[in-house]
Design goal:
The structure holds 2 protein chains of 2 kinds. Chain A is mostly helical. Chain A has 2 helices and 1 strand. Helix content of chain A is 69%, strand content 4%. Chain A starts with a helix and ends in a 7-residue tail after the last strand. Chain B has one domain. Chain B has 7 helices and 5 strands, in the order H-H-H-H-E-H-E-E-E-E-H-H. The chains are: A mainly alpha, B mainly alpha. Chains A and B meet through helix 2 and strand 1 of A and helix 1, helix 2, helix 3, helix 4 and helix 5 of B.
């Protein structure tokens, strides 16, 4: 158990903080554009 | 889909520029990210999840959409100094205005909907009914601020079809710019001077 925890800690420490920040920024931007944009896609068009 | 494409292309261009200039790519430092999540949740239920979007009646759903847009405006305003965000905010306002003017949904004319689907949409949707995720099908003469509605179509030779508004175009440009040109001190100052 301790071994697994240590391995996870080592893995987590290798994740670059900037990569995490970029992932959150992309996610927030994706939600922003999907939220404020209102295109009607051919795939989704039709009765709700 | 077309809006997410702008995000993806902006990111690729930003990464390419960083690689070309031999500098690390710096993500835009967005503030109050949690607010974007909170703002998106209502739309997830009323527009994007097929299983839940029929639960609320159209009146409550449109109110939720307007509330969500208001929260997104606050989120965007907190981040207004980032490059591209002023364009994106302008697009948001254009979409918000036309949605409010047409009863809480983005209007799409019968003509545009017919071109989009390639068939007579009246066979499966009534006029005044919801169409797609956030649209409402209306005759062109009943649409307020028709020039801000979903009236543009992607070129016919593209395999994916979509109708979009002027606001959507500005939102795409803003999102692209935000990721393609990450904030620098100079950019931040320039943007700040527009809003201060």
């Amino acid at each position: 158990m301790n071994n697994k925890l240590a391995r996870f800690t080592l893995f987590a420490s290798k994740i670059n903080r900037q990569h995490v920040q970029l992932a959150f920024a992309i996610l927030a931007l994706a939600m922003l554009v999907l939220g404020i944009g209102a295109p009607s896609g051919g795939g989704s068009a039709g009765p709700r | 889909m077309i809006l997410l494409l702008a995000v993806l292309v902006g990111l690729l261009v930003g990464l390419g520029r960083a690689y070309w200039c031999k500098q690390p790519y710096k993500a835009p430092s967005l503030e109050v990210i949690w607010l974007a999540v909170v703002a998106f949740l209502p739309q997830l239920f009323i527009a994007y999840m097929p299983a839940t979007r029929q639960i609320l009646n159209d009146g409550l759903a449109s109110l939720s959409l307007l509330g969500s847009l208001a929260l997104f405006f606050v989120f965007a305003w907190f981040n207004r100094r980032l490059p591209g965000m002023p364009i994106l905010i302008f697009g948001l306002l254009l979409n918000f205005v036309v949605i409010v003017a047409n009863g809480g949904w983005m209007p799409i004319s019968l003509h545009t909907a017919n071109l989009l689907t390639g068939k007579d949409v009246l066979q499966f949707v009534n006029l005044g009914s919801r169409f797609g995720e956030k649209d409402i099908l209306l005759p062109a003469q009943n649409i307020h601020l028709e020039f801000l509605a979903d009236r543009f179509l992607l070129p016919a030779w593209l395999p994916y079809k979509a109708a979009f508004s002027l606001g959507d175009v500005l939102i795409s440009v803003g999102a692209f710019w935000l990721l393609a040109r990450p904030a620098t001190k100079l950019n931040a100052l320039t943007t700040e001077s527009v809003f201060e």
